[in-house]
Amino acid sequence: MGISFVTAMRSVAGPYRSNNEDAAAASPAFAIVADGVGGHAGGEVASGTVVRHLARALEGADVAALDPDALRALVAEANDALRRQVAERPDLEGMATTLTALVRGDGVLRVVHVGDSRAYRLHGDGERTGQRVTHDDSLVQELVDAGAIRAADAAHHPQRHVILRSLGGDAEDAGDVTVLEVPAVPGDRWLLCSDGLTDELDDDELLAVAAAPGTAEDAAAALLAAALEADAHDNVTVVVCDVVAEGEAGGPPALLGAAAPTD
Question: Distance between CA 114 and CA 98 in Å, rounded?
Fold first, then answer.
């Protein structure tokens, strides 16, 4: 099956942040979103390093042949790149990043996830129904799962930004990565995003925006506009991927946010 992605990306610092610590990449074969955390420039370095490293690795690989273990190995290599950064610059100690990626396979799509950035799937049916695919690695999600708080209260919990798993250069970090396999269905639309979007729009709201008629570019622009209209307090990054049966085989990925070239 000649599955390919038609992608569109947006990433902004937002009105209240001076730096954009989000990073993103997209190509016909994969899409990546990362949200960095850390003092000084650490967040930018973490997300940018992981996205650039993983994008280069995927660009040079036969992505359809990458099973979950192979994808985890690539993430481990990106995590090692963070460790080397900290060894060279001790001031970056404590930096970390989330990671959510969508990689095309042979009849399947693989979702790579750690942290609280998210992936959503919208079905290519007439009603364009959709749902969240990833499960947040966060304190509030753990509290919801344990029945300690209601899901409706999670968005306003004072510790809603505390993540329990991320990539920060420690060897064990890569072991926390989840890889899901989902059938590849032409006509489906996927959304990857940082929490700058999900802090402002709940699942129903963002799925409604993403499901509106139009192209991937239309959807990405509308999602960013909706977050900014809601007075986004964080960096906002969205990548929209429309799954098509035939398309480009690959090519250099587009890089955005902290992963974008600086020269």
Answer: 6
Query: Alpha-carbon distance 234 to 228, whole Å?
Result: 10
Asked, for residue 183, whether it belongs to a domain, the answer is: yes
Q: Does 260 fall in a domain?
A: no
Here the CATH number for the domain that contains residue 130 is 3.60.40.10
Per DSSP, 47 falls in state H
CB 169 within 8 A of CB 86: yes
Q: Quick check: is 259 in a domain?
A: no
* Cα end-to-end span (Å), the chain: 38
Which residues form the domain of 209? 4-244
Q: Could you report the per-residue pLDDT of 132-170, keeping only the tens digit for each?
A: 999 999 899 999 889 999 888 887 888 888 899 999 988
Alpha helices in the chain (DSSP H): 42-59, 68-88, 139-145, 151-154, 195-198, 203-211, 216-229
Burial class (CB in 10 A: 0-12, 13-18, 19+), 16: exposed
Domain for residue 261, yes or no?
Answer: no
- In the chain, the amino acid numbered 73 is A
- Number of structural domains the chain divides into: 1
Residues 184 and 22: their CA atoms lie apart, in Å, by 27
Calculate helix-pair angle for 42-59, 68-88, nearest 10 degrees. 140
Measured in whole angstroms, how far is the alpha carbon of residue 78 from the centre of its chain? Answer: 15
Task: Scan for tokens 């001790």, then name that residue.
Answer: 90
pTM for the structure as a whole: 0.94
For 221-254, b where at least 16 C-beta lie within 10 A, e where not — what string? bbbbebbeeeebebbbbbbbbbbbeebeebeebb
